[in-house]
Design goal:
Blueprint: E1 7-13, H1 17-28, E2 37-44, H2 51-57, E3 63-68, H3 74-83, E4 89-93, E5 97-99, H4 103-113, E6 118-125, H5 131-148, E7 161-165, H6 166-171, H7 185-195, E8 200-210, H8 216-240, H9 250-263, H10 267-296
Parallel strand pairs: 1-2, 1-4, 2-3, 6-8
Antiparallel strand pairs: 4-7, 5-8, 6-7
Helix pairs in contact: 5-9, 5-10, 7-8, 8-10, 9-10
């Protein structure tokens, strides 16, 4: 039997075969010896078989495929992949992300230096001409920079580019699967991580390119779902410890709206600022909807 790899890459996927193929191509081009890592693909209830694609990459990658009979959502899919991982460390990436060739080398270098830290890499936008994808990226960029300055009350890394010890991941029980909108599991996991006073570190040269193609309706639905997930996450946290429902100061939200205009004041910047306003309104609407639904069910 082959010796255990140092790291396992976990990729959840559902109905995005073309994106997954690009992701695997990126992983196969890593400047890390192939025997030092493995890849676990979790087919989250997709009716289309991935077996032929997996076979095409077996000569370059150590691959395992898990096929779930029905969709369980990305949090549960990631945890299912982590459950069979052989690596000492775990790295998570989404199927619509393509890693840079140095991605794994950067993460593995830092994991050896900081084996007990949760690491987050840099996510760049692969669809700059899509206004909705660009607006979502602007929000993520602003939030990351805000956290780097040490101002945030709820520091987190998105799950499409993180790495950590497999032992600590299992010790914390993996990702929370009870958040109904399949969002905010990254915030909830990082919150549990920080509650143990475990360290977090940003790795800017661990880069993945995220190509999340959004339409107007998908953009609204995405941020509405974020609002649902964030409210449920904060309710979960309040059951563990007293905490406010609104996490940041007013300046956080005001500067978020101004962020595109501070980069460049042109028509595109004003468009991005307007979409950020819409995104925040959709997020608030999602949170209110979740609160009303829970109240109607008799929940606190």
């Amino acid at each position: 039997m082959n010796s255990a790899p140092e790291l396992t890459v976990v990729v959840p996927t559902r109905d995005r075969k073309a994106q997954l193929r690009n992701c695997l191509e990126g992983i196969s081009r890593q400047d890390v010896d192939a025997h030092r890592f493995e890849v676990v693909i979790v087919n989250d209830g997709s009716p289309e078989s991935l077996a032929s694609m997996i076979e095409c990459h077996r000569d370059r990658l150590a691959l395992q495929l898990i096929v779930l009979p029905r969709s369980v959502g990305p949090a549960a899919a990631r945890s299912a992949g982590a459950a069979i991982a052989r690596g000492r460390f775990l790295a998570f990436i989404d199927d619509d992300c393509v890693p840079s060739p140095h991605w794994l080398a950067a993460l593995m270098r830092e994991l050896r230096r900081q084996p007990n830290s949760l690491l987050g890499g840099y996510v760049e936008n692969g669809l700059p001409d899509n206004p909705y994808s660009a607006a979502s990226h602007q929000i993520n960029t602003y939030v990351r920079q805000y956290y780097e300055r040490g101002h945030a009350n709820e520091r987190f890394f998105p799950t499409n580019n993180i790495a950590l010890s497999a032992e600590r991941f299992r010790e914390l029980g993996g990702f929370n699967t009870s958040i109904p909108s399949h969002t905010a599991e990254d915030k909830e996991f990082c919150d549990r991580w920080r509650s143990r006073n475990y360290p977090m570190a940003y790795v800017p040269d661990a880069v993945v390119c995220h190509s999340h193609d959004l339409s107007w309706s998908q953009f609204l639905r995405q941020h509405f779902s974020y609002g649902r997930g964030i409210l449920v996450f904060r309710q979960i946290r309040r059951r563990r410890e007293p905490s406010p429902l609104i996490p940041e100061r007013f300046e956080f939200y005001w500067n978020l709206l101004l962020h595109p205009l501070r980069v460049k004041r042109d028509v595109l910047a004003w468009q991005q600022a307007g979409l950020i306003v819409v995104a925040q309104m959709a997020t608030v609407a999602g949170a209110i909807w979740a609160a009303l639904r829970e109240n109607s069910d008799g929940s606190p």
